[in-house]
């Protein structure tokens, strides 16, 4: 028994030593972690919860897509409709602007006002569409803000050219207002002058001027209005001639040789030829020869409705409408500054007329000798109009002739132009001498040396005398 106990004690010691040398707790605990029913159940619960959450998220996304889809489609449809309205408005604006441009040439104030109203109306429509676009953009995100800003920028880019046109029209209105004021001042001074009279003028002439001042604001074309326009042509022609002659003197021209050249050019177109090698014009009368040259150039083609700048036959195909159009253009242009007009419409019919006549009157060699270069000549040839004092003076003269031409084709019947021929007998009924004789009467034996400006026979039987330079019969 004692041996069994001893053996049993030895056995316990050996087991105890073995447990101390080889602990089983870690291995057992590892196996428990791998095979524990509690741990595996927790893992399965976690996996199930994750799967359930994913399914829930998918269902939420699906529900959101189902809810947002119709709203998104509606918004896209609204934006498409808005853009269609924008494109239609821009197209309408372009058409209105084209009509505005067409109303400038030929000049039609009624069409111009209507087109201007249409352009402004389309601009207002665009402003309304812009506000609608801003309100419909609505998002708080930066991306939406950028989109909205880009849309507004694009609309502004479209509107910018038309806003510039509106500004130009406003400037033109201001110019017209100033011209109206200047015209009223001139009219008041002309009426005052005609009422005071002049001791050197005949009573009949003073009465005629008073009538002309009244007729200047008439609503229909009249022969008296044509007479007043012819007076303005002569005054403008004298002013331009004086400026050109002074420039010739400053450039040390041989005025006598220039006059002989003008006389030779005049004689080549007349039946009468002078055999004298000396000038028939005295030194202090050179201005009349120069004015004759200018008048002949600028009145060339006056009998045609466009000065033969094109082959138009409107005055023959629809004469009544053409007369109305001419008088409308006359009334619109009368109060305008030609420089401002050509700054806006350099290639209108009046602009082409000015270019053609300037190149005909001022030869390149003449311009180079007067100004030292051909800058103005080059600009006119390119279709532009210089802003020089000399060209502005020329434009003033060209405008008076253009207005006279418009009036001529406004009247029914139209005035008939005539010109005294070189060497013709002097007829007081149809001619007026530019050189005044003692006693106020032309001495016997005087003939036409050369014509200075043309005359006209009017439909009411009155005559605008041709101005001539007289010489003694040889």
UniProtKB/TrEMBL annotation:
Which residue intervals are annotated with compositional bias (Acidic residues) in the record? 47-64
Could you list the residue ranges that cross the membrane?
none
Q: Where is the GIL1/IRKI C-terminal domain?
A: 418-469
The biological processes this protein is annotated with in GO are: negative gravitropism; response to red or far red light
Top-rank taxon of the source lineage equals Eukaryota
The region called Disordered is annotated at: 25-67
What does the record list as coiled-coil region(s)? Answer: none
Chain ranges of the DUF641 domain? 76-195
Protein known as: DUF641 domain-containing protein
Q: Which organism is it from?
A: Phaseolus coccineus
What high-level taxonomic lineage is stated for the organism?
A: Eukaryota, Viridiplantae, Streptophyta, Embryophyta, Tracheophyta
């Amino acid at each position: 028994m004692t041996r069994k106990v001893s053996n049993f004690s030895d056995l316990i010691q050996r087991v105890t030593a073995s447990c101390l040398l080889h602990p089983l707790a870690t291995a057992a605990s590892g196996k428990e972690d791998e095979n524990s029913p509690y741990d595996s159940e927790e893992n399965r619960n976690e996996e199930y919860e994750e799967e359930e959450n994913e399914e829930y998220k998918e269902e939420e996304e699906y529900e959101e897509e189902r809810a947002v889809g119709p709203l998104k489609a509606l918004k896209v449809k609204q934006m498409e409709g808005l853009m269609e309205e924008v494109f239609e408005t821009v197209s309408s604006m372009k058409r209105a602007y084209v009509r505005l441009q067409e109303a400038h040439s030929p000049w039609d104030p009624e069409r111009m006002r209507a087109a201007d109203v249409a352009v402004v109306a389309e601009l207002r429509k665009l402003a309304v569409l812009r506000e609608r676009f801003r309100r419909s953009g609505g998002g708080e995100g930066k991306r939406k803000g950028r989109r909205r800003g880009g849309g507004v920028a694009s609309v502004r880019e479209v509107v910018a050219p038309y806003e510039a046109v509106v500004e130009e029209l406003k400037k033109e209105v201001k110019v017209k207002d100033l011209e109206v004021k200047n015209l009223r001042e001139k009219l008041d001074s002309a009426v005052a002058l005609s009422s005071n009279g002049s001791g050197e003028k005949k009573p009949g002439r003073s009465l005629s001027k008073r009538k002309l001042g009244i007729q200047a604001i008439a609503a229909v074309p009249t022969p008296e209005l044509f007479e007043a326009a012819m007076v303005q042509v002569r005054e403008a022609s004298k002013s331009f001639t004086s400026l050109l002659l002074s420039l010739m003197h400053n450039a040390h021209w041989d005025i006598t040789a220039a006059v002989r050249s003008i006389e030779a050019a005049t004689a080549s177109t007349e039946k009468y030829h002078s055999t004298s090698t000396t000038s028939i014009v005295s030194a202090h009368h050179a201005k009349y020869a120069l004015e004759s040259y200018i008048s002949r150039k600028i009145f060339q083609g006056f009998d045609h409705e466009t000065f033969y700048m094109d082959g138009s036959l409107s005055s023959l195909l629809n004469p009544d409408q053409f007369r109305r159009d001419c008088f409308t253009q006359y009334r619109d242009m009368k109060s305008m500054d030609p420089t401002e007009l050509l700054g806006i419409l350099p290639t209108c019919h009046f602009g082409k007329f000015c270019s053609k006549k300037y190149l005909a009157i001022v030869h390149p060699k003449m311009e180079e000798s007067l100004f030292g270069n051909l800058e103005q000549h080059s600009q006119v040839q390119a279709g532009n109009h210089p802003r020089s004092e000399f060209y502005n003076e020329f434009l003033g003269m060209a405008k008076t002739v253009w207005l006279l031409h418009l009036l001529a084709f406004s009247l029914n019947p139209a005035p008939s132009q005539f010109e005294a021929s070189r060497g013709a007998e002097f007829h007081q009924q149809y001619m007026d001498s530019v050189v005044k004789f003692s006693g106020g009467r032309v001495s016997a034996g005087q003939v036409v040396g050369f014509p200075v400006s043309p005359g006209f026979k009017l439909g009411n039987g009155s005559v605008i005398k041709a101005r001539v330079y007289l010489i003694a019969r040889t």
